[in-house]
Amino acid sequence: MTKNATAGPAATGEASRAERGEGYAVNAPYYDLILPRDRWDSLAGALRTLLPEARSVAEVGAGTGHFTEAMLGFLPADAEIFAIEPTRVMRAALVTRLARIAGARRRVTVLAEDALTAEPPVPVDAVVLLNLVMHFAPDERPRLWRRWAERLRPGGVLVVEAQYPQKAEPVPPATVPGRSLGRRRYETVTRADVVGEDAVRWVNAYRTWEGDRLVGEEVAAFDCHVVSDQRLAGELAAAGLTAVPDAPAGVRAWRR
Ligand SMILES: C[S@@+](CC[C@H](N)C(=O)[O-])C[C@H]1O[C@@H](n2cnc3c(N)ncnc32)[C@H](O)[C@@H]1O
Question: Who lines ligand 1 at CB under 6 A?
Answer without folding.
Answer: 13-15, 24, 60-63, 66-67, 84-87, 90, 114-115, 130-132, 135
